[in-house]
Amino acid sequence: MVFNSSQGKFNWKIEKCTGEDKSRMQELLERTMYIDEPLTSTLDDVSKGLYKNETAILDILDQGHSFKAITPEGRIVGAAINLACPFSYETYEPFQEVVDFLAHVSRETKLNSHGLLDLYNLGVDPDFRRQGMAKALAQATLDHAQRTGFTGLKVCATSHYTTAVCRSIGLQVIYTLAYEDYRSKDGRPVFTPPPPHTHLQVLLKRFSEESISKM
Ligand SMILES: CC(C)(COP(=O)(O)OP(=O)(O)OC[C@H]1O[C@@H](n2cnc3c(N)ncnc32)[C@H](O)[C@@H]1OP(=O)(O)O)[C@@H](O)C(=O)NCCC(=O)NCCS
């Protein structure tokens, strides 16, 4: 699926990712996810450095379920990095407190994820935000999941904005956790992202048998 936008200040389109996008994707992650994604934004510089050396997330592109937003010059300015469930957070997250947190959320959500596609990582270049790019990437992901036989789409939204994006394309919140309520043994909140990112939400859309076969 290709979606062209000239509604914003910049021109961009959505395309499927390939394994050849890895180095340009790494540059985007360093301009977005490793700076202001709510969980990583709370880490110190040493811990953030662990993410910058992490390449496992780029291997997700080889699965063929991810999408990028690119400019006419070929610059990647947004991405939805998607992977088939089930998977282990340990494979993709270098920081143990993040692994523990996301594993806790998975357990508490009590969801059988077999057959679902997970929108694992949604990021937009700061210069291209508020143009509907994240929504277009999420919609492309949803259409792809339905077309290729997944039974639904799941998103673990650490950002308030991702929750808004996913709700706008029909996902429903199935689990909520206030960051304030996830505490270490000494009683302190482990993650304290800036407002409005006060809660993590898990969102889901299941496809009916009928809608999968119609695509
Ligand atoms: C979250 C993120 C991907 C959103 O990208 P985006 O392209 O700006 O989002 P969209 O333009 O598609 O916005 C869709 C909706 O999200 C909400 N939203 C997004 N950014 C917002 C902001 N800065 N303030 C308020 N609402 C916002 C709005 O409801 C918006 O709809 P509207 O513009 O019609 O009001 C982007 O802010 C980002 O990359 N953040 C850093 C990485 C991150 O946190 N990723 C998500 C991890 S779960």
TrEMBL record:
Entry-linked Pfam families: Acetyltransf_1 (PF00583)
Lineage: superkingdom: Eukaryota
Chain ranges of the N-acetyltransferase domain: 108-158
CDD domains (UniProt xref): NAT_SF
InterPro entries in the record: Acyl_CoA_acyltransferase, GNAT_dom
Protein name: N-acetyltransferase domain-containing protein
Organism expressing this protein natively: Nesidiocoris tenuis
